[in-house]
Prior knowledge:
The complex is a heterodimer.
Chain A: E1 8-19, E2 22-33, E3 37-42, H1 48-55, E4 63-68, E5 71-72, H2 80-86, E6 87-90, H3 102-112, H4 118-131, H5 147-159, E7 165-169, H6 177-192, E8 196-200, H7 204-210, E9 213-218, E10 221-226, H8 228-233, H9 238-247
Helix pairs in contact in A: 3-4, 3-5, 4-5, 5-6
Chain B: H1 2-13, H2 15-48, H3 52-67, H4 70-84, H5 89-115, H6 118-126, H7 131-161, H8 173-184, H9 187-217
The complex binds adenosine-5'-diphosphate (ADP) and magnesium ion (MG).
Amino acid sequence: MDTLNNQEMIKVNKLNKSFGNLHVLKNINLTVKESDVVVLVGASGSGKSTLLRCLNFLEIKNSGQIIIEGEQIEKDTHDLNKIRQKVGMVFQHFNLFPHMTVLQNVIEAPIQVKKQTKQEAIEEGKYLLEKVGLGDKYDVYPSTLSGGQKQRVAIARALAMKPDVMLFDEPTSALDPELVGEVLATMKELAEEGMTMVVVTHEMGFAREVADWAVYMHEGKIIEVGSPNELFDNPKEKRTQAFLSSVL
Amino acid sequence: MSAITHFFEIFTGSIDVFLDGLWITIKLSVVSLLIAFIIGLFFAILKISNIKILQWIADAYIWIVRGTPLIVQIFILFYGLTDILLIPMFWAGAAGLAFHSGAYIAEIIRGAIQSIDKGQREAGRSLGMSRGLTMRRIILPQAFRRAVPSLGNQFIIGIKDSSLVSFIGMQDLFGVASTMGSNSFDYLPYYLTVAIYYLLIVLILTYVVNLTEKKLARSD
Ligand SMILES: Nc1ncnc2c1ncn2[C@@H]1O[C@H](COP(=O)(O)OP(=O)(O)O)[C@@H](O)[C@H]1O
Ligand SMILES: [Mg+2]
């Protein structure tokens, strides 16, 4: 493999985050290499969302280092708006802009933030929507879409900023079971194209098939890291075993 | 029977003067509500800022407006502005009304902004949009939509409240009615007449607000 594929896309050293007295992330260390797909599992409240949110600076860490593409990012020395463009995020509840059409949702940030021309943004936006299977929905409002369609629009919207990493926070947990597959298929396609992804999910099938690494979090700590099959089938830690037997 | 014909005579006979008053009421309401909207937006943003002193300034403003009668506010601004700053009566009246409505509009807009799901802000920020851009492009358009019914209601209150400027001598709708009534000692028909003008204005405005609401609802 070439050196590019071994580049560290995200490196986290001794990351700590508290909300008031609540110590939510405790000395987190994590490395995500280019084109890696990492799934993050753990009980509700273990800090998975907070970790993702720290990685794209929606939350500001208390201590430790977050290194994105080799550069240590600090809020005092970096324009976080610029950094966030490199780190796309997909939310559990989609968070589409309800006052904009599907296409407007996708082209908003490229035009307003990246200063793309409208024509350029529309062209790329349509291409991305086509890609996620929504080529016939450009001009409808999000309220008319199913959950699965909404989440695919949200993915296209994040991709429109051409991020180097995509973070997914339980992208399918708000969906009716029959709509989960279409979103996972879109994510799988993205992974196959080499997108670096960090995914919080309890879809074990997806994790086994697509992920390079699985990370188990418990009460703000990373307890165990391994290949998905290793971690799910032969967890070394008692707490991982207990968690897995509760979700499987 | 003759009371009714008498009223109709007064109603039709006074159309010219009342149209002059109506024009002043409309000009005054539109100008004062536009200013009030800008004041309201400004103080709403102060209130949701994370800066204590700015929040405090907004609280103080809203407290003063809520804690004093509108007529007192109009008199203070009128005597303050026209005596000290030599501002024309129209603008003093408009300033008084705007100062008053601004506080209520600030609360309406603040409430609407805070009612927008925080995921909207996060989605905007996660795409690299700045705080200001997210506010302008994502939050405010949704907040305004949500605020249309309350803003419409506040505009209606503002138009009716504008009648108080007659007490600083303006010949708005109510001023005309008062003058005509006291000149002829025939008060009731003129106050009935002015009531009809206000009812018509409010009827039309209510219709416009409802129409706007329906139009905006299509995207939700
Ligand atoms: N903004 C916040 N303010 C205070 N506490 C928070 C906030 N966000 C998350 N928490 C707390 O941090 C802990 C971890 O939450 P979260 O990262 O959402 O966990 P997970 O995504 O694994 O369910 C929880 O106890 C949660 O209540
Ligand atoms: Mg979570």
